[in-house]
Model the fold of this input.
Amino acid sequence: MARTAAPDTATTIGGAAVAAAGPLALTRQLDVGDVTALLLLAEVALAVGCGLLAARRIVDRSRAGVAALIVTGLGPLLFRLAPVPGVAVGMTLLWLVTAATVVAAVEIARTTRLGGVARWAFVVVAADALLVAVMSTVPLGAFPLAYVDWHLDAVRPVALLVWGVAVAVQPHLPAIRRRAGAVDTAWRESTTVGGASETRDSRERVPHD
Done:
């Protein structure tokens, strides 16, 4: 069970940044011309978001989890900004980032600081990264190649969006539940009072012989 945490601005901003990276990455689907700047912004948002979340130690005291989360966030940005000298080096870096993503997912799933969707949604990101790395290394036929094109537009961005929103909301869940409970209680009380008043009025209107 996740620990109840006080509202944490850095965690909220970090989660929001990761969530923003998802829709920005989805712009590659839109036929609006060159979206390089938006994709670069998505990668910057992911790097900043993962960095903030690592700094806030959402993976508890796991140093491996902190390092893995940072590498996961920086990986796509470094691939874009730094030219890779050769296929062998590129594949090595791809597997390094993929391994970091898997480690980050395991440590996030083990953490006591998150719960529910915030704890498990990142597993989808890691599974997607692992599948793409395998298919980029081993030729598996036409279907995997079609998936490589499709996953970039849907699976990982959507998973990042869901996970980022869940993480951003997590510190505020106790307050949200309290407010929702107060609204529900007030509504029930008003309904009860209103129903009692209507019953009393109807009794007073009954004609007497």
